[in-house]
Amino acid sequence: MLVAGAAPAPPPPLGPFRLEPLPYPTTSFVPAIDAITMQIHHDRLHQAYVSNLNVAVKDHSNVAAMPLQDILARLPEMPEAIRTTLRNSGGGHANHTMFWQVMGPHGGKPGGTLAAAIDRDLGDCRNSRRTSKPQAGAYSARAGFSSP
Q1: Left if phi > 0, otherwise alpha if psi is -120 to 50, otherwise beta: which for 53?
Q2: Could you give the percent of the chain with pLDDT greater than 70?
Q3: Which pTM value belongs to this model?
């Protein structure tokens, strides 16, 4: 159950793209992110990307048969009528799928060349987290996939 009085999410349309369940409980990030926020973000926002993507490809069997990464890599070759939806919803689906996989309840510290670049450019990982916290609320649900 989400929020008292909230309408249930509509059933997802059938299609080749699917929303996988979260790889951890929605309560994994409390108190930083509450369970309802996680549930809404996954079950409604991410599901909307998947549903819109499936609607876009339903009349384009050649596109529907492609893996998402190929669709996004070949975006300029996709039918113009669905290209924007492929970019926005396909990119949103790809970004969120990666987000759920790399986001983990136990945190961690980057290593290797990423850690070296953070240390070089931002001081260190701890300092980077402190300086980026004020911007943490600057999330945009409309952040689409960047493409050439």
Answers
A1: alpha
A2: 73
A3: 0.69
